[in-house]
Amino acid sequence: MSTTSERVPFVEAQFLEDLEKASRELEAPYDEKVLKEVINAYGELMYDAAIQVRGSNHEGVPLLFRVLMATPADTIDIALRRGWLHPDQPLVGLVKAARAHFEGTIDEPEFTVDKGCDGMFLYLGGLRDLAEVLGIPGMPDVIRAHREAFERLRLDKIVTVHFQYPQELISFYFLAQGPISKKALDEAIALSGAPPATDALYKDIVGVLLEEPYYLNVIMDYRTGRIIRVEVQLLFPVKLPPEMEIPEIGERLATFWDMPSHEYEDMDMLTYNFGDTHLGSVFGLRSYCGGLRNLLRDWEIIGA
Predict the structure, then answer these.
(1) Average pLDDT of 44-48?
(2) DSSP string spanning 155-173?
(3) Residue 165 scores a pLDDT above 60
(4) Distance between CA atoms of residues 194 and 8, nearest Å
(5) Is residue 4 part of a domain?
(6) Could you tell me if 63 and 112 are in contact, meaning their C-beta atoms sit under 8 angstroms apart?
(7) Is 6 a member of any domain?
(8) How many of the other CB atoms lie within 10 Å of CB of 245?
């Protein structure tokens, strides 16, 4: 995958150049005007944040980047003042309720390089029990109704909640521990209504996972509660162990990982998607700058 490279501070011109070049090589949508508007709004925060970029194995899917911060800032207010969000949007109210429900939350906004404001991760200030998260005031009952199914699969510890504004989606990022059996993987995948993983795909996943922790992400429709996608997100260590088996990721993701990383320690991730895969069946996530691995260490979650 990636190699360790020297970290440099966030540099706007370099960021624009790197994302434009990567988008061009992937033949993916890109709008420099939109990107500059985002940097104008959030640039001060970006200089002190870790930046992560996501690519897809599907054609035509724009790059997406996340601004992962170590200290709190009201990124919702910035988006409201810019007119990118409206106070009456239901997810805006739910984000604010979640902030009030937990101590130590931190906004982690995300943007596509063609349309801008897309969503937000809310770091919950540490690992939280499923019951605590479902207890957020305003959490829809159709989502609370999944509690028994999650607990049956021992999905009960949540690191972040992901809100996707245009699509009105809520995702729970469960912390899980490898290894994972084929039966357990298929039971998790079944939440989305997707068929079981093939033996070859299961081999790809466990060849990277080994016995390490991982994220099991469940993406749900805010209004109906329907689980539209399940993601298995794997994290690569700085030094790959000899027993790790790197899967064939295809030309598009190989091109994506050619994008520069300005980090002392790279923090790469690979996400396998099940269910609605119109944005891609596999995502690659690349740390760009700002020390993402150190941020995860500070959070005392996986990735150290």
Answers:
(1) 93
(2) --EEEEEEEETTTTEEEEE
(3) yes
(4) 42
(5) no
(6) yes
(7) no
(8) 11
The reply to whether 173 falls in a domain is yes
How many structural domains comprise the chain? 1
pLDDT digits (tens, 9 = 90+) for 136-154: 999 999 999 999 999 999 9
Closest CA to 189 of 285, 58, 295, 277: 277
Return d(Cα 165, Cα 90) in angstroms, integer: 9
- Residue 1 included in any domain: no
DSSP string, 79-115: HHHHTSS-TT-HHHHHHHHHHHHSSS-EEEEEEETTT
State the residue range of the domain holding 270: 12-298
CA–CA gap between residue 264 and residue 5 (Å, rounded): 5
pLDDT band at 7 (very low <50, low <70, confident <90, very high): very low
- Show the DSSP H helices in 117-215 as ranges: 130-134, 141-144, 147-152, 182-189, 199-209
Record the tokens describing residue 14, joined without a space: 């370099």
| Whether residue 215 has pLDDT greater than 50 | yes
| Neighbour count for residue 5 (Cβ, 10 Å) | 15
Please give the radius of gyration of the chain, using alpha carbons only, rounded to the nearest integer: 18
Confidence band of 302 (pLDDT split at 50, 70, 90): low
Report whether pLDDT(299) > 90: no
| CA gap 254, 211 in Å, rounded | 25
- What does the alpha-carbon distance between residue 97 and residue 233 come to, in Å, rounded to a whole number? 27
Q: How many CB atoms lie within 10 A of CB 83?
A: 8
Which residue do the tokens 């994506």 mark? 256
As given in the structure block, the two tokens for residue 84 are 């990118």
Cβ(179)–Cβ(210) under 8 Å? yes
* pLDDT average, residue stretch 190-195: 98
pLDDT for position 304: 43
